[in-house]
Amino acid sequence: MKSIFYFTLFTLFSFFTKGQNSNTYTTTNAHSHNDYEQNIPFFSAYYQHFGSVEADVILRNDTLFVAHQESDMHGDRTLESLYLDPLTAMIKKNNGQLFKDGNQSIQLLIDLKTSSALTMPVLVKALQRYESILAPKGPVKVVLSGNTPSPADFEKFPAYVYYDGRPEVQYTPSQLERVGLISQSFYKYTRWNGKGVLIEKDKEAIESVINQAHSLGKKIRFWATPDHVNTWKMLMNLGIDFINTDHVEELGTYLRNRTNAEYLSKEQYTPYQPTYRNNDSRTAVKNVILLIGDGMGLTQIYSGITANRGNLNLTKMLNIGFSKTSASDSYITDSAAGATAMATGKKTRNRAIGVDSNFVALPNLPDQLKTYGIQSGLISAGSMTDATPAAFYAHQPYRDLEDEIARDYLRSSVKILIGGGTERFIKGKVADSLRLKGVQFSEKWDDLKSMKAPFVLLDNSKIVSVQKGRGEFLIPALQKTHQSLAQSKAGSFIMAEGAQIDYGGHANIVSYVVTEMLDFDKLVGEAMRLADADGQTLVIVTADHETGGLTLLDGNIKQGYVDGHFSTNDHTAVMVPVFAYGPHSLDFRGVYENTEIYSKILNVFKKYSRR
């Protein structure tokens, strides 16, 4: 009967631990290995809210020194001074709790380096003075490792003494009650160095021992594990209870950021199936739709592919190039310089809008295309006075001059603006001036259907994030703009920006990035549909730069699960992809400066436009 009971428990724990989501991990799952070697023993781990710390103890002359070997012993580095006294002080300070903001406990793993027979009497006597803070009475659980008493002698010592067990040892029920933790060397099961993934045989061996410990109701840790982010994530996926580390602050930061690092998609959509009408052809281009995923690099795209179970509208495009994004004064561009390069064909300084490096105004695409009778519209899921859309109509030395940027629209050739930034157009009476010029102006999204070009619709409620309820915005805005400008026989140019992929990168929140990426990709699908409908529309999809230095450390395409890590909260210098669909999409293959996007668009229009 006992064997059946344990088998049932084993099966249940196997089921639950294999499906454990790593966002359930917190710093309470962290173990500070050889904690006394930290610059500030105990407190480094304590302030990270670690769930376990380890202290090696050597007995000399009735004193319990904390040291790895005798040569490291110092008179002021004792078990009491480094651990028991600080624990007592913090618990007293927090009115009986380890932390004032919760009832967290901590495991104090004491590794006995000297013989059990000599060390245990002294240790028990020392611990007795702290019994009120020790489990089962208090929040500190003392677990002994190293030269511990034999299991048969466990019960000879007070109840506040627990022991570090081994997976291969068979304990009686009474002995098992005194086992506070199960540990083993990682290298007993694998020689994995932390790079790549575990081979299946080793993975199965490790999962088996974890499940065995869990079936007994015990937590488990491995010592001698590789100690970096890839290993931490692998251990989390395996369901380990304590992650062994010497890098206390790094692991603490990593674990505290689990919520921001992961995204699990709850639904998926079916991408548009393109007909590839006139794709790759050299036929006439009447309309160009330029879609800019602000901050969108290859990793952001692949996070979207993963979340949507392996497919995006972008993956249906066949012609792909790469854009080099540096500014005239910097290896790493910002949105102002990046968008100016695409809007004017000239590199400029970071923060500059529609001007060259000497702050001289440059003609932009909408103004250039006006000479051919081609009408333009701009859309953004952000403020229309922000850098990317502003570069297509404004001319200012600094992007933060948003009131001046708004006033520049009064001299612009752009027929339609849809986005946010209402306050900038209201302030300074730009909206009033537009109305006097016969331009419709609205602050209400519901007015979109009834508006007629030229018009400006700025509704700040529609530039919140997808996660905060933006809802349908980019697609209806594109449809309305395309429909309104289609009345021009000469053709149209539309720039639509997925602004908030960038916001998510700056915030270092994976879910923010992915949800905005998916929303932007749906816009890509609609643009492809419009291109197929007339066979004369060229769709270009690119980014002004990558934001966040996003890397994907883990994921599952079948589940739509993404785990990412950011190297910065700012932009990076990596090249960004350029996707193209429709006639002349072949022109966008290759590697080139971002200024070439302007030239390629202008050349396509010049080739077929008639004055």
Automatic annotation (TrEMBL):
Active-site residues from the entry: 335
Keywords attached to this entry: Hydrolase, Magnesium, Metal-binding, Phosphoprotein, Zinc
Cofactor names: Zn(2+); Mg(2+)
Transmembrane segments: none
Pfam families tied to this protein: Alk_phosphatase, GDPD_2
Gene Ontology BP term (one): lipid metabolic process
Binding annotation for Mg(2+): 294, 386, 388, 497
E.C. no: 3.1.3.1
Superkingdom, natural source: Bacteria
Binding site residues for Zn(2+): 294, 502, 506, 544-545
InterPro entries: AIM6_PI-PLC-like_dom, Alkaline_phosphatase, Alkaline_phosphatase_AS, Alkaline_phosphatase_core_sf, PLC-like_Pdiesterase_TIM-brl
A single GO molecular function term of this UniProt record: phosphoric diester hydrolase activity
Cofactor: record remark: Binds 2 Zn(2+) ions.
Similarity annotation: Belongs to the alkaline phosphatase family.
Listed name of the protein: Alkaline phosphatase
Species the sequence originates in: Dyadobacter pollutisoli
